[in-house]
Specification:
The protein is an all-alpha fold. The protein is 45% helix and 0% strand.
Length: 165
Amino acid sequence: MADFNSPTSNADYQKPRYQRPEDGTVAAKGMMDYVKICFKKYADFNGRARRSEYWYFYLFNVLVFFALYIPVIALLVAESELVILPGILLTIYGIGIIIPSLAAVVRRLHDTGRSGWYYLLGLIPLVGGIIILIFTIEDSKPGTNEWGPNPKTVGNDNFENDAFA
C-alpha cells in the first residue's frame, strides 16, 4: 500500500514556499513565543509589534501578577509576617517589567501607524485608557510604514497566493 503523504523520491520533494523571518515574528506559534520576543526586545522602541505579540505579553504579565499577588493576600488574611517575601517579589517584578511593557505598547502603536508618543494620551482622565485600548486593538496598517515592514507579512515576500489551492 502506498503512502501518499511522503514523496516517492527526492525528485518529488518541493521546498517550502515561504521563509521564516530571522527575528521570529511570524514563526511564533504560541503565547510563550511571543512573550520571549517581547523580552528579547526588552528596551527596543523601534519596529512594530503584532496584536498577538502585545496581547499575549499583556496576558502573561497579568497572570504573573496574580500568581504573585495571591500569596500576598493569603498571608495578609493569615496575619503572617511572611507577607513581606511575596510582596518583595511582586515589587521587583513590577519594577522590572516597566520598560519591556512600555517598549511593547510603543511598538504596538507603531504597528497601527502611530507614534509612541500617543501613549501619553493614557494620562487623560477617564478616556485616555479607552483611547489607548482602541489603538492597541486595531489591526496593523498594511505595508511598510516609517517604523518598518508589517510583521504579518515579514518572511512572506515570495509566498504564492495560490499555495493552498
